[in-house]
Amino acid sequence: MRKFGDKARVALLLASVAASPFALAAPAFAQDGVTEDEEIVVTARRTEESLQDVPGSVSAFSESRLEQLQATDATGLQGAIPNVNIVQGRGSSNATNITIRGVGQPDALQTFDPAVGFYVDDVYYSRIRGTQLEVFDIERVEVLRGPQGTLYGRNTIGGAFKVVTRRPGQDPHGLFQVTVGDYGQLETRIAASGPITNNLAIGGALFGAGRDGYVTNPINGDEYNNRNAFGGRVALAWDPTSTFSIDWSADIADEDNALVMGQATTTLFNLGGAAIYPISSPPPEYDFTASATPGLPNSTQLTHWGTTLRASWEINPALTLRSITAYRNLKYDDYVDIDATPVELGDVFVGVRQHQISQDLQLVYDQGAWNVVGGLYYMRANVDSHQEAYADAYVNGVLGLTSFTRTIDDELQTTSMAAFVNATYAVTDRFNISAGLRSTNEEKEYFRTTSTFYSNPLFNGTFAFDVDNSCDDLSPMLSADYQVTDNVMVYARGARGFLSGGFNGRANNPGEEAPYEPESFDLVRDWHAYRLA
Q: pTM for this structure?
């Protein structure tokens, strides 16, 4: 019988009785594959323009194109974008590792920042956990390749991945999808939007996904690498006047999946050098005899939610003021049997709690030959982590030891502030030059306590530290583009981006806790010629 968690079961039930839409975001190609019958409007430069007019390496995917690719999450675009690798993160089912032009950062440890920025409705997600989100009920996906420091700021040395959700409008919209597959897969997506009054519209979306595990423990029947997830989103769009609009949205995603377990391929030894889990050579046929430590399920549990308030005021035909205020909350608990054996050698628990607030103010000037975007940005993120590691089998019987437990508690606070401007001047109707600059100030404070408990007090020890780090960065951009014909454009672009500095959250010895400095890509050259249609 199909096994669902209560939340996923409720989501599937609601989806089966309601009418409507949680749509897949389908991408229309970007410059790398623009379809002839579809024009894509993007905001790669923080202002709406045709994708074909952007002097940069951008790929955009409309809702219909995403449906063609059957992309239900970010990894569905793997292989669809040049020089981009998008895969599920290691050690979890709810992280996304994005590498652009060989630049990426796959480690989900809270003290390390990603090298590719991830945005939903221009709200920055500061961790790679919680980004393995469902791609539905959206307008498009944009992937910007190369440093994006001027307009997008920190941690975009590789590029940026942008999701733009569907804005409710006066035209009713609905979608209902059901997917059935092997391993008991059952997924339901439902979404709907429409008017409440002539200037107020509402939209909502809901999904539930369940699937049995790909791997089964023959000893106890436990299944691993399964899927048990649900989520939803609600949005309001209000246009009180022709020059002023307010958009509010809230979303939530919840997952409880069993992690994949491996198999030990070499003999495991204890602290005294004695074999505690012998493995023959060559290793035996995969038998999957490992089981999670009693009381610690081999699973990952995540809840990610947030809310966003957007406002836009057209002060006059040439000047528009925008505000984006957001709050994100991320919580996950990982229970992992690292040694993948019945002995307690590398069994760990990691619990992380993060919340962040951000404020983005933008002023857009668009008149005559000039298009200028300037603004101020503020973000504050707090991450608390608690870790436990158990290795009783590693010390048992050595010097009278019988138990080993290590705990780590840490707190990371990041404050980032920036001011930026980006201007484009049309020299002629075919030739444009653009320049931009972003100034960023960032401060980080990191506090860690750690304790190790042995049954022999002679081996007790701690290594705690309290460090901070700050940096200032200037990220320039300069580009020029020329429309050779109505169908061909050439451009050259130079840009800089920086990856935030940080701390070694895995420091085991004094001195290893020293902060590391930011990384930067200095004026990476980028040129391209492409056919527009």
A: 0.87
